[in-house]
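STRUCTURE:
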């Protein structure tokens, strides 16, 4: 069994690792940006594909990965796992529709509430305790789902027509065409000390250091990894100031 995931701040990574460790200890799990991910998908029949919900939608990077490699999905059994900060009508359904077109069978879907990754929005900020509680509940949900999956009772969250309507009218229609411009808003301010961490860790290789400055190549998938890791909180995207960097492991320390 194979798990492939995109994770900006670690939430999705945790969820897929926990789920697969409970279902199949032999499973292999790789980040989608890993060079081996395509070959591993070709070699495996059952794939757990996981990603964070963005604006009730699938992140560009994952959508483009599926489309660019459209020949590798035929005959595969795909389970979709998405994480979300609050609401995702059909975060899993968005990938279902594309993958089905390419001949995959969708065996199930799981949508898990996790801490919100958007570090530069005061409105979305939660307390440490709230985030800890959210993770505890997520873990419980994963444990229940794993037992059902072992018994071949696959959860089908976000896959129904009703969920499709919820995602579409709840958020996607509003954000339609707006989000293309959002990813170009990535800003690096003068507090940057050129440590190179963001350049090294961006899953899109979107950041480079040029003439002593970090520069965005405008292919950001809005994962918030660099924003949540920068030691100087020098990077913003949707907001103007980083309020609290979201990193999954932070909420597991105490
Ligand atoms: C750009 C962006 C858009 C998001 N949009 C939504 C959304 O529409 N609904 C939602 O519930 N959560 C949304 N979130 C929250 C993430 O889905 C959530 O925090 C997720 O667990 C992050 O996972 P990761 O740490 O694996 O990247 C958004 C996060 C980002 C960065
Ligand atoms: S992580 Fe922050 S400080 Fe380091 S290079 Fe990137 S923007 Fe600059
Ligand atoms: S630039 Fe930052 S937010 Fe954008 S894809 Fe890279 S790591 Fe993610």
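SEQUENCE:
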């Amino acid at each position: 069994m194979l798990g492939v995931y995109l994770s900006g701040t670690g939430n999705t990574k945790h969820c897929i690792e926990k789920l697969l460790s409970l279902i199949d200890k032999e499973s292999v799990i790789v980040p989608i940006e890993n060079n081996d991910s395509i070959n591993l998908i070709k070699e495996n029949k059952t794939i757990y594909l996981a990603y964070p919900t963005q604006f009730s939608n699938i992140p560009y990077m994952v959508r483009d990965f599926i489309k660019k490699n459209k020949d590798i999905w035929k005959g595969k059994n795909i389970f979709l796992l998405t994480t979300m900060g609050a609401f995702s009508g059909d975060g899993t359904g968005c990938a279902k529709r594309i993958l089905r077109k390419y001949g995959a069978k969708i065996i199930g879907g799981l949508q898990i509430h996790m801490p919100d990754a958007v570090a530069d929005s005061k409105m979305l900020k939660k307390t440490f305790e709230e985030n800890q509680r959210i993770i505890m509940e997520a873990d419980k949900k994963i444990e229940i789902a794993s037992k059902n999956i072992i018994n071949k009772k696959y959860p089908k969250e976000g896959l129904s027509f009703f969920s499709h309507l919820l995602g579409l009218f709840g958020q996607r229609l509003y954000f339609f065409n707006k989000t293309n411009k959002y990813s170009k808003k990535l800003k690096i301010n003068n507090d940057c000390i050129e440590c190179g961490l963001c350049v090294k860790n961006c899953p899109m290789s979107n950041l480079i250091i040029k003439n002593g400055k970090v520069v965005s190549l405008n292919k950001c998938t809005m994962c918030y990894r660099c924003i949540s890791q920068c030691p100087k909180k020098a990077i913003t995207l949707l907001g103007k100031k980083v309020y609290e960097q979201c990193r999954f492991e932070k909420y597991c320390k105490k």
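REMARK: The longest strand covers residues 105-113.
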